[in-house]
Protein 1
Amino acid sequence: MTESAERAPKKSNGGGTARRSAARLAAVQALYQIDHSGEPGNQVLEEFLRFRLGDSFDTEQDVAPYKNLFSEIVAGVSEQEPGIDEIISATLSNKWTFERVEIILRAILRAGVYELQACKDTPARVVITEYVDIAHAFYDGQEPGMVNGMLDRISRNLRPGEFSDAKPAPDPAEGQPTDEGPADQGLAESGVAQDDGQQDPDQQDPESEDGAVGS
């Protein structure tokens, strides 16, 4: 199997939660393409908005991602990548470097860290669950657990007030995957567990569905 992020979500209709999940999935795909191809982030963002998430998107069959959330994540990661990568690197086991982490895992972690930093209206546990679900779409092994452990630890540093009574997650497994491992599991749309007792932000007033987020 070869590493790829070019997988389409299962076809289904969906409400606000599904559309936010689809936006995060599309953002991870775009971040993968930026890292893998070396294309400028704004170019890939425009490509996705015009050709992959544009007017031809079949909303009768697929979950249409919220374009604003998609754009915010991709643009935000592109602008803040050095700082985000430092946070991720500091959380890795001493036996691993950031460069050894698979490209798709880097994309998942970057998107998750960006949301934890910038999207304070979305509870940290919701962000973690969303990106663990995306990791499950690509991997059957230890990688989703690694994403869970790393984002949990990062979130406790970035948002300590949300974890005042909770125990930290275990250290991420030392056997973290490298660029040589497979990452081409079929991309399936997953439901998001919201069991932390906090209000689901997807139940709030829906955001504007179409325009891209400005700088």
Protein 2
Amino acid sequence: MIRYFFQAGLFAVAVAACTSCGGRASQAERDKTTVSTAVETKSMIELKDYGAEPAVLDIEAYTLGNENFRTVLWTGTNLQVTLMTIPVGGEVGLELHPDIDQFLRIEEGEAKVMMGDSKEDLNYVRTAKADHAVFVPAGKWHNLVNIGDKPLKLYSIYAPVEHPYGTVHKTYDDAMAAEHLH
């Protein structure tokens, strides 16, 4: 029994020695690495349509870094990712995608989400905020209104593709004008 306690004690001392001698990074060192990575990630953001090429992107950093009303980030054959920034009191705009399912994820802000079978009857009304997902089935009228006190930052996934490759709309008005063209 004494031998067991002695071996357990030696093991504990060895673990403690490894931890304090650089076997593990201290919390401060881990925090520096996290901050450094976040800074590097933010400085490396290039807002563009990455096309149908393979890509690994920090979607949260890209979404929070987008200042345009709409920026297409990735357009594939059957799927598209767009980033949106909706100003306080602004809206995505009432729309209907007859053949497109849509997923939206809010990264920052708060929205009133409305959906329905007709634009006169948006009977599905919910509040969504950061980290919430919104699922819009094809054929549903829908709109999101920023009800928060800061810009609403979100990304949207369309399946199939909704916007032309490389689309950037600086403002809501730019987006509405472009919608009449395509």
Protein 3
Amino acid sequence: MAKKQIKNYPIFLRATRLEHLKIKIKAKQNNRSISRFAIEKCLSDEIFQEKNEQENLKSLLFELRKAGNNLNQIAHGINLARLTNTQPPTENEINEATSELKKAIELIKKNL
């Protein structure tokens, strides 16, 4: 049988009444005391995973905006060429914009 650890290092937290109630409810839902619940949450990696997910989403959003901007510039170039009888964007430029958009879509699919 495992020896019970002595816990004689207190940690004091300050919380609003609402925060206290939320923590108390979550601890009860998980069949934990507030102390045990707080310790487990503080020592888990969930907080860092959430931050990494936010960073990934920011990066994805940047890539999607970049690809969308490129696509918009191509569409603008085509429309302008029609109106002014000038040279439209080259096939290479169109393929490059399409490729970037496909990459952005694949990144989003992988991370969702």
